[in-house]
Automatic annotation (TrEMBL):
InterPro entries registered for this protein in UniProt: Aminotransferase_I/II_large, PyrdxlP-dep_Trfase, PyrdxlP-dep_Trfase_major
Domain of life: Eukaryota
Listed PANTHER family: TYROSINE AMINOTRANSFERASE
Keyword set includes Transferase: yes
Sequence ranges assigned to domain Aminotransferase class I/classII large in this UniProt record: 5-115
Keyword annotations: Aminotransferase, Transferase
Pfam families: Aminotran_1_2
Protein name: Tyrosine aminotransferase, putative
GO molecular function, one term: pyridoxal phosphate binding
Organism of provenance: Perkinsus marinus (strain ATCC 50983 / TXsc)
GO biological process: L-tyrosine catabolic process
Amino acid sequence: AIDMAIAVLANTNGEDTILLPQPSFPLYNTLCSSRGINVDFYKLRSDRKFEVDMTSLQRSLESNKLNAKGILLNNPSNPCGSNWTREHIGDIVALCQEFGNLPIIADEIYHDMVIR
């Protein structure tokens, strides 16, 4: 499903970019590379349970604003095991809205494994 979402959002023209978390599941980069889609990485903060570094994400959005076609989020995170708050996810959504409602690919495959 992730592969299909990437394929729908980005062209293989060598210009489109998908934003990926760092660190992240290595397959995301492989899926983009195999389709000729550029990637740019935004950082996760190890000091904050691997939440998205909002400054890093904003920089990535600004430097790719013409070519960014989507952002991939992985929550709960693989390989970091973190689980973000609703507020943090809301902050990410708000930032994506500022950049033309940039689509979010939400990989939440492990959502049922979260201890509540």
